[in-house]
Amino acid sequence: MTGVESRKQRAAQWSLVYNVVATIAKAIGAALTGSVSLISEAAHGATDIVSSLVAYASVRASAVPPDEEHPYGHGKIETLAGLGEAVALLGIVGYIGYESIQRLIHPSPVESLGWGIGIMAVSAVTSFVASAHVGKVGRETESLALQSNGQHLRIDAWTSVGVFIALGVVQFTGWSGADSVCALLFAVWMGWEAWQLAQRAFHDLIDHRVTDAELARVRAVLDGTPGVIGHHALRTRHSGSMHYVDVHVVVPRHWTVVEAHDLADGIEKRIAEVLHPAEVVVHVDPEPEAGLDAANPPD
Question: How far is Cα 8 from Cα 31, in angstroms, rounded to an integer?
Fold first, then answer.
C-alpha cells in the first residue's frame, strides 16, 4: 500500500470513529430536549456515519491495483461513493425540512435546554477540527470520497453552531419557533452543498478534464521541454485520486527512435511528478516535412 492510500484510510477511520461518538451524543441530547434541530442533527449524524463507512470502504476498494478486467484501476469507486453521499445528504435535507415545517405549524416545547446547548457547543468545536483534518487529507490525496466526507463534517460544524444559537434564543426568549427556523435554514444550506457535491461527482464519472491549474502545469512541462517543437491532442481526466494524461508531441524528423523515446519518457516522468499521482502516456510525432501544413501534424 502506498503512503497516499495509507493516509486516506487513516483519515477515513478517524472520521468514522468521530461520527459514531458525535451522533450518540446528539441522539441523547435530542431525547432530553425534544428539539427538532437536535433531532435533525442526530439524523444528520447518522448519515455522516454511513458517509464515513462508505468513504472508508471506497478508499480501500479504490486502492486495489489495476487488473486484467480493470486496466485503469478502481478509482471511480470513490467517485461513486461521493455521489452516493450527496444523494444521502439530499434525503436528510428533505427530512429536516419536513420536520421543521411541522414544528412551526404545530409548536411543541423544548426542554432541558442546558444539556442541548452544551452538547452543541462541544459538537461545533470538535466538528471543525475533524472537518479540517479529513478535508485536508482529501484535498492533498485528491480523494473525492474524503473531500465529501470532510464537507459533511464542515456542514455538521456549522449546523451545530446554528443549533447552539437557536437553543440559546429559545432559552432566553421562550420562542420555540427559533428551533424550527434554524433547522429549516440549515436544510436549505445543506441542500445546496449536496447539489454541488453531486455535480462534482458527476463530472468525474463522465471523465471531466483536470482543473485549470493542473492543466497549466502540464502545459508548462510540455512548453518547457527542449526538443519539443509542439504538442496537440492533449487529453486529461480524473479517476478517484489518479490523474490520467495523454498527449502527442512533435519532435525533429532527423531524431532517432532512441532520442524520441528518451524525450517522451522524460516528459511522462515530469508530468507525473507535478500531478502526482498520475499515469501519463506521450505519443511522439515527427516534424512535418518542408511544405506540409505544420498545423496538421501526422497522427
Answer: 35
pLDDT over 80 (residue 18) = yes
pTM: 0.56
Backbone angles phi, psi at 272, to 5 degrees: -60, -30
Give the separation between CA 104 and CA 127, rounded to whole angstroms: 28
**Residue 74 backbone dihedrals phi, psi, to 5 degrees:** -125, 25
Report the pLDDT value the prediction gives residue 294, as an integer from 0 to 100: 46
Q: Which amino acid is at 25?
A: A
Burial of 272 (0-12, 13-18, 19+ CB in 10 A): middle
Helix 177-205 × helix 76-105 angle, to 10°: 160
pLDDT, mean over the chain:
83
pLDDT band per the 50, 70, 90 thresholds, residue 92: confident
Strands (E), the chain: 230-239, 242-251, 278-286
SS3 sequence of 208-264? CCCCHHHHHHHHHHHHCCCCCCEEEEEEEEEECCEEEEEEEEEECCCCCHHHHHHHH
**Rounded-to-integer distance, Cα 75 and Cα 94, Å:** 30
Plot region of 2 (φ>0 → left; ψ -120 to 50 → alpha; else → beta): beta
Asked if residue 229 lies in contact with residue 250, where contact means CB atoms within 8 angstroms, the answer is yes
For residues 247 and 199, the model is more confident at 247
State the distance between the two ends of the chain, measured CA to CA, in whole angstroms. 38
